[in-house]
Design goal:
Peroxisomal Thiolase, Chain A, domain 1; two-stranded antiparallel ribbon
Length: 427
């Protein structure tokens, strides 16, 4: 169980902002395009993989086991198993963790693990009333029965149910994810100005990273069926300044809230993959790892406080390895909401929180801002739910390679009251 497990390489599509209509790519298109490009640059053939594991939170009806669909479309052959995992926002991290577990159990040596979602294609549904009316209509056998049903029909039956909004509403506490962010803002005294400043910084850092070429080896350009090129993440905006963001109205609590579309992650389409390998596979294929997966942790917490998931998941890893927050050289905390990331920072800096919630003697301190999301995050890039966990693991390794750092942490909050974290080391 202590066998080293490596990440060899990784690649993702551009993250494409949803624009109130179905995007140009289905989820399996995104997974296939990124996976093919990644496999082409490997020294092994696609059918030499032991398995393909893909995280996806919202597959379409014709892509139910999307991991298998992608594996076959990428040319892995019929004998390579492909399967799908779902842990909401951390589905892409779960795929990597599942690969690690199978490698350490001796079931696999070489795994393609990733995540994908095309949230712009989340369906519009009929209401229960419309479904019941339709079921009665198709069961009706006489003209009289149909006439009676027509008399009962109401125009409101046509009102669509937005599947994405249902998916972003916690069924236990009944809150939208943005409302849980409002809870953290209230709990830790996070102001609207602080949220907007954090969001503006995310955009500024992504823009700087794009101009410096920091995403060049991570993002593969893709073409739609009409030949249009999508070369880069398109949700980032140069005009996302604190002043402009301050003009937006609260979305989740319109009367008292401060969480807006501008200081929240964007609804986005995207896919990402990494190659995960054992030492045996590294030796057999003469692979050059970019990093090693050192440890991982999953945690549960109050669904109404789900944004604190990174704190509950990353802290046990730090304790197991005798590390402080700034003993790491890079942090990637997925930016579901500005209030959520700031809330995590304030939780770690709070004596009371660390004592009562984490069982520590006192506060862990503050992460150096120069180490946290140095190239921006999901507020500017977007959050294709299934893919984000893979993206942050890949990107924290790329930051370590660029800066010469040794250790990094990728951490993510998860709808339903969960947290996930993964400690990696540059090789």
């Amino acid at each position: 169980m202590n066998e080293p497990v490596y990440i060899i390489d990784g690649l993702r599509t551009p993250f494409l902002k949803a624009r109130n209509r179905p995007g140009p790519f289905a989820a399996s298109d995104l997974a296939t395009d990124a996976g093919r490009a990644l496999l082409v640059r490997q020294p092994f053939a696609p059918d030499e993989l032991d398995e393909v594991i893909l995280g996806c939170a919202a597959p379409s009806a014709d892509e139910v086991n999307i991991g298998r669909v992608a594996a076959l479309r990428m040319g892995c052959g019929q004998k390579v198993p492909g399967w799908t995992v779902m842990r909401n926002c951390a589905s892409g991290m779960q795929s990597i963790d599942s690969a690690v577990n199978n490698i350490r159990a001796g079931r696999s040596d070489l795994v393609l693990a990733g995540g994908v979602d095309a949230l712009s294609r989340a369906p519009l549904l009929f209401s229960d009333a419309m479904v019941m009316w339709l079921s009665q209509w198709y069961a009706a056998k006489t003209a009289g029965q149909r006439a009676a049903l027509l008399a009962k029909f109401r125009p409101g039956h046509f009102a669509p149910v937005i599947a994405l909004m249902k998916g972003l509403t916690d069924p236990i506490c009944g809150l939208l994810m943005g409302q849980t962010a409002e809870n953290l803002a209230h709990r830790f005294g996070i102001t609207r100005q602080q949220m907007d400043a954090f969001a503006a910084r995310s955009h500024a850092r992504v823009i700087a990273a794009q101009k410096a070429g920091h995403y060049a080896n991570e993002v593969v350009p893709i073409f739609d069926r009409g030949g249009k090129l999508y070369a880069a993440d398109d949700g980032v905006r140069e005009d996302s300044t604190p002043g402009n963001l301050a003009k937006l109205k609260p979305f989740f609590d319109r009367k008292y809230g401060n969480v807006t579309a501008g200081n929240s992650s964007q609804v986005t389409d995207g896919g990402a993959w990494v190659v995960v390998a054992s030492q045996k596979a590294v030796d057999r294929h003469r692979l050059t790892p970019i990093g090693r997966i050192v440890d991982s942790q999953w945690a549960g917490l109050d669904p109404a406080q789900m944004g604190l998931g990174p704190v509950y998941a990353a802290t046990p890893i730090l304790q197991r390895h005798g590390l402080g927050l700034n003993d790491l050289d890079a942090w990637e905390i997925n930016e579901a909401f500005a209030a959520q990331v700031i809330g995590c920072e304030r939780a770690w800096a709070s004596d009371e929180f660390c004592r009562t919630e984490l069982g520590l003697p006192g506060a862990l301190g503050a992460i150096d801002e120069a180490k946290l999301n140095v190239d921006g995050g999901a507020i500017a890039l977007g959050h294709p739910v299934g893919a984000s966990g893979t993206r942050i693991v890949l990107h924290v390794l790329n930051v370590l390679r660029r800066t010469g750092g040794k250790r990094g942490m990728a951490a993510i909050c998860i709808g339903g009251g969960l947290g996930g974290a993964m400690l990696v080391e540059r090789t």
